[in-house]
Amino acid sequence: MRIDKHPVLHFEKGRKVQFYFDGRPMTGHEGEAVTAALHANGVMVLSHSLKRRHPRGLFCAIGKCASCMMRVDGQDNVRTCILPLREGMRIETQEGKGRLK
Amino acid sequence: MKYDAIIIGGGIIGASIAYNLTKQGMRSVAVFEKNYISSGSTGRCGGGIRQQWASPENCKLAVKSVHLFEKLDQELGFDTEYYQGGYLLLAFTDEEVEQFRKNVVMQQGAGVPVRLIGVDEVAAKFPFLDTSDLKAAAHCRTDGHINPMLVNQAYADAAKRNGADIHLFTEVVRIVRDRDRINSVITADVRTFETGVLINAGGGFSAEVAAMAGITIPTRPQRHEILITEPLEKFMDPMVIDFHHHIYFRQTKHGSVVMGYGDPHEPYTHNIQGSLEFLKTMSLMITKVVPAMKKVKIVRQWAGLYNMSPDAQPILGKVPGVSNYYQAVGFSGHGLMLAPAVAELMAELIVTGRTSMDISDLSIDRFAGRTEFKLEKAVV
Ligand SMILES: Cc1cc2nc3c(=O)[nH]c(=O)nc-3n(C[C@H](O)[C@H](O)[C@H](O)COP(=O)(O)OP(=O)(O)OC[C@H]3O[C@@H](n4cnc5c(N)ncnc54)[C@H](O)[C@@H]3O)c2cc1C
Questions:
Q1: How far is residue B105 from each of residues A12, B55, B222, measured CA to CA in Å?
Q2: Which of A24, B113, B358, B372 is deepest in the core (most CB within 10 A)?
């Protein structure tokens, strides 16, 4: 799922790169938001609510909420909706509140 | 309308005095709060509860408070998030170590289970700290922290259950005094309430409240800034104070880290604006002490008032020349932790004229004719 043509906006598409989601290799375009790459690969659930563990997907998409927080290359609580994708990134679903590291 | 006791201020001090007055049998008690419960310093404070003070009087009051905090949830029927995770005071210079050494002896004498611990033990027990410049630390395991808003509400609710009236959004704008006696208060909505005694628990506005009764007291408001981070998995038990960098921090039950920095050059005003300067300084200081904080996001910042007294100790009890005026003011940044003890003793003083623990050293008389004071140093 990707918007390729848009009446107003023009998308620069970076080169194809490989990254990992929970250990599975996936491909996306360098520089696009990590969540865009995940969506294109069919991953809609980014985190879970703390109390009831309800699935959480993309919500604000501008780095203001906590819905898309994931573990990226070992770092917890990274807002993946505003994080540009890079080659070899390791994105993981984060359970719980994130650790001080 | 007539009350036996009117309390001005619905912060932790006013609410806890109201509760203790009703508990000790006073019939008609009222609290007047110009905003809402916890809208003043209480709802803005750090929530720390410690017994490690530089004077024996402060230690004894704090020890009494901790005994009361330990039973408080049960007594008030409220989960206040009280947590005895301890308190860790960091020493970075030889002078600080020397001071801590003296304090620890004095504090142990006052019944505080505190000990001086070496850098290796600090590093092993509290791995989140950067101990490279650390010289030693003082640790007291029965110190801890609490959710200030919850404990304020708990006291207010309990006072209400016991029959006290809590008038929210009701500012006292005039105090009517006839010679040595206060007769009544008048509220902003122009109602008059007569009273048997008046209690000033006005926090950052204590001097203004006293002035309405024609009383001059040496308290001054001073802004202190504070912030809270996103929640993290639990990584720390104690509240940490670092007098060297002027900071303190603790992790709440929810997982957020609350931290404050006391600017030594802050002027005495009622200003409670948050500042960008604070964000910069706080970030700089906290990342020196807890380097991993670099990656943690700040959620919110705010500020509140310390009500400073000349010696940074509270001013409790009556004032000369007014028979039915009492005050519990000037807490100088540690009123939350002292509230249970202070409120019980103030209620004793008001109801019986005596206190079960001597607090006469903390009366306003100590300032009479003096211009220099021994400062309580253990304040951030
Ligand atoms: C950033 C910060 C961190 C702190 N950290 C700690 C800590 O870790 N531990 C600790 O023990 N203490 C701490 N303190 C200090 C603590 O917050 C105060 O000592 C304590 O809350 C004082 O309680 P209070 O009831 O006297 O004042 P307040 O909570 O300010 O209550 C006074 C109330 O009186 C009301 N009032 C004033 N004038 C009138 C009027 N004319 N009519 C009606 N109502 C009126 C105000 O609206 C206010 O609600 C901290 C304070 C700050 C600002």
A1: 68, 11, 32
A2: B113
Please report the pLDDT score of residue B319 as a whole number: 97
- Quote the pTM value: 0.94
Identify the residues whose C-beta falls under 6 Å from ligand 1: B 8-14, 32-35, 39-42, 44-48, 171-172, 201-205, 209, 224, 226, 260, 304-306, 331, 333-337
CATH of A16-92, one of 3.10.20.440, 3.30.460.10, 3.30.160.20, 3.40.50.2000: 3.10.20.440
DSSP string, B243-294: TTTTEEEEE-TTS-EEEEE--TT--SS------HHHHHHHHHHHHHH-GGGG
- Its CATH architecture, for the domain B83-144+220-308, is 2-Layer Sandwich (3.30)
Cα–Cα distance between B298 and B295 in angstroms, integer? 10
Cβ B227 vs Cβ B257: under 8 Å: no
Computed over every residue of chain B, the mean pLDDT equals: 96
- What whole-number distance in Å separates Cα of residue A86 and Cα of residue A81? 14
pLDDT for B233-280, tens place per residue?
999 999 999 999 999 999 999 999 999 999 989 999 999 999 999 999
**In this structure, which CATH number among 3.50.50.60, 2.60.40.290, 1.25.40.10, 3.30.70.580 belongs to the domain B2-45+149-219+311-367?**
3.50.50.60
Among B204, B187, B188, CA closest to B6: B187
Regions in chain A scoring below 70 on pLDDT: 1
Paired residues of A44 in beta bridges: none
Instruction: With beta carbons under 8 A apart, name residues in chain A contacting B232.
Output: 76-77, 97-100
Q: What Rg value do the Cα atoms of chain A yield, rounded? A: 14
B329, B336, B379: residue to mutate for ligand 1 pocket, most atoms within 8 A of CB = B336
The predicted model gives B338-365 an average pLDDT of 97
> Do strands B220-229 and B298-308 pair parallel, antiparallel, or not at all (unpaired)?
antiparallel
| Distance between first and last Cα of chain A | 35
Question: Distance between CA A72 and CA A35 in Å, rounded?
Answer: 12
* Residue numbers in B near A77 (CB within 8 A): 230, 232, 295-297
The 10s digit of each residue's pLDDT in B113-155 is: 999 999 999 999 999 999 999 999 999 999 999 999 999 999 9
Rounded distance from Cα B119 to ligand 1 centre (Å): 35
Calpha distance A43→A1 (Å, rounded): 11
The full set of domain ranges for chain B reads 2-45+149-219+311-367, 83-144+220-308
